[in-house]
Amino acid sequence: MMERQKLLSGNDLLKLKVCGLTQLEQIEELTAMKTNFLGFIFYEKSSRYILNHLNLKQIGEIKHRGKVGVFVNESLERIAETAEKTKLNFIQLHGDESKDFTIELRKKIHPETGIIKVIRMGNQISDELQQIINANFSTVDYFLFDTDSRTFGGTGKTFDWNLLNSIEISLPYFLSGGISSENIEKIKLLKQKPFAIDINSRFEIKPGVKDLEKIRKLNKYIHKTESRRDEL
User: Fold this and answer.
1) Which residues pair with 91 in a beta bridge?
2) What is the spatial distance between Cα 8 and Cα 137, in angstroms, rounded to a whole number?
3) What is the percent of the chain with per-residue pLDDT over 70, rounded to a whole number?
4) Closest CA to 41 of 7, 86, 101
5) 70 band by pLDDT with thresholds 50, 70 and 90
6) Which residues contact 184 (CB under 8 A, 6 or more apart)?
7) What is the maximum span of the chain, computed from C-alpha positions, in angstroms?
8) What does the domain layout of the chain look like in residue ranges?
9) Residue 12's pLDDT band (boundaries 50, 70, 90)?
């Protein structure tokens, strides 16, 4: 819990998560850029499946306190084992994992490891979304709202952010799904601002290879915008 609280403490600047990483050199550059969260996808069907590029030992040796492992309908045992071997700080459940699954997972992982529950945004109505939030908030640390897809993310498509203004979000949340330099300004229209934004395919040269210059520009924009807000 203490390690997670460090990420929450201090200033309230919008935080940045870069997901779908596969290249060690890029991971080092993003770390030097003080990127808050590094996302590694442990889903074999993904074109950004990390174990096609790095092994568990290599991931475990990455020095960063915001390492996030993304899992889709994986077994409790494999998630717990992977989290331990790679020294993950956060586990992102991106599939159809239930509240009971999360409760059991919590028993198997290190108590300092945070859990991020993804809510895939499609054609739900506000009441349905609220029920999902109410059912899960006591067992996880963060929510992540992403555009629904058969491939479980990485679509580069944005869902209707207005849906977030129609519900009560009881935890800090990550905003994902097609975030770009062109639409990030619309975040200011949200009643409850995200804790962090999660970028992936819109900031890539090809799957798993990031456009670091675009990320640098976004990072500068976030800090410039947030600093200006603090002055108001």
Assistant:
1) 69, 115
2) 17
3) 89
4) 86
5) very high
6) 197, 218, 221, 222
7) 49
8) 2-7+15-231
9) confident
pLDDT digits (tens, 9 = 90+) for 74-115: 999 999 999 999 999 999 999 999 999 999 999 999 999 999
Contact 123, 133 (CB under 8 A): no
Architecture of domain 2-7+15-231: Alpha-Beta Barrel (3.20)
Cβ(82)–Cβ(61) below 8 Å? no
Least confident of 2-11, 27-36, 53-62, 91-100: 2-11
The CA radius of gyration of the chain, in Å to the nearest whole number, is 17
pTM (predicted TM-score): 0.90
How many residues are listed for the chain in this entry? 232
Q: Write b or e for each residue in 184-200: b if 16 or more Cβ atoms lie within 10 A of its Cβ, otherwise e.
A: beebeeeeeebbbbbbb
Question: Is the alpha carbon torsion for 49, 52, 57, 61 positive or negative?
Answer: negative
